Amino acid sequence: MTRRNLLADGALAGAVFALLLGIAAAGGLGDATGNARDLDVTGVALIAAATLPVAARRIAPLAVYVVVTTAVMALWSLDYRTDIPFGPLIAVYTLGSVYGGMPWSRRIWPVLAVAAQVPANAAIYLSDGHGLRDVLVPEIAAYSLVLVCTWIVGDFARLRRERMAELEERARRTEREAERERRITAAEERTRIARELHDSAGHAINVILVQAGAARLLHERDPAASQRAIATVEQVARDTIGEIDRLVRALREDDGDEPVPADPAAIEELVEHHRAAGLRVATALRGPRRSLPRSVAWAAYRILQEALTNAARHGRGHADVAVDFGPEAVEITVTNPAGTAAAPAGGGHGIVGMRERATLLGGTLETGRENGTFRLYARLPLAALAGDAEIPAGSGAGQNRRAGAQAPALAPGPAVP
User: Fold this and answer.
1) Domain range summary for the chain, segments of one domain joined by +
2) Residues 221-274: tens digit of each pLDDT
3) CATH H superfamily, domain 264-417
4) For 371-391, b where at least 16 C-beta lie within 10 A, e where not — what string?
5) Are 314 and 339 within 8 A, CB to CB?
6) 90-123: buried (b, 16+ CB within 10 Å) or exposed (e) per residue?
7) Which residues pair with 283 in a beta bridge?
């Protein structure tokens, strides 16, 4: 019961009271019989009892039904011409809408109360001198059918109300689930960005470590090479600061929008970056140009970045890179002569991180050391991530930065010695 429903029921009760009062004052809807009674104070009081309790039909539906039905029976017994029992019909509708879906143990009394109208009406008709056949057909049969239909309409109203409530609850639940999924997605994205921050910073620190050592060793013997190494350290530090700033800014955003990842770059730029750091790299990019899912592009870029960093740190200054763009997967192979401090085949946090990236995409990563050569092979399938946003092939690093791309574009090209 709400205030709005109470006001609506009060207005309904007032309307049916006025309507029934007008019908009784006019002597009924049809021709008045000889024993019809004129409206008086008693008739007005009974009409009020037969209609005004409808205002409380949502509070006590069964009690309202008993009161209005009794009043209508009294009106008919005293020969007041109130042809249409508005109050009882509204009360029966309410009973159907309230008790229709309840167990029979609670529904039985309202059903019996409604059914009791039939013999009561028959008794009133018989007392007026009507024959049994006139009582049963058509008045009693028609009125019984009206009562049944009114109950059924009330039950349908209850079903519709419950259905609407169920749909509203489902909509609210869907909204809550969508909000939860949004928060989970945002948390996963922040975790991914934090991981990118870790990888980017670790890569930069390793490059800075190698170049700082080279600058120290070449300081007196080859000042020019030492200056180049220091310039590389400066450039790597500057790029890393910008990348960390972008990643941390994305981590602080809580609006659920897709954060812009680290500065994307193509394979050529990554290779040139390591060449500038002193690593001799030979590349072979094979396969047709095609678009890659964003997740695969990110994983391939980070795996290749980490592999080249390991080659520069633990190898002997040379690495061979082969990237095959197949119809079902991207395959990355990096080989380099292993130095005395080469990382073991299955160890190192970098290798663990690369293997985890490949595994998350349903791929594999294998490492091994044989005959003084360290080999890394990664296979990243494309089918499992067909729904990801695709990174167009052939969009260079500069184009990616201008367009605000969200992952490195891995585009096959000619071998670079």
Assistant:
1) 3-175, 264-417
2) 787 877 777 877 777 777 777 666 666 665 555 444 433 333 334 577 778 878
3) Histidine kinase-like ATPase, C-terminal domain (3.30.565.10)
4) eeebbbbbbbbbebbeebebb
5) yes
6) bbbbbbbbbbbeeeeeebeebeebbeebeebbbe
7) 321, 416
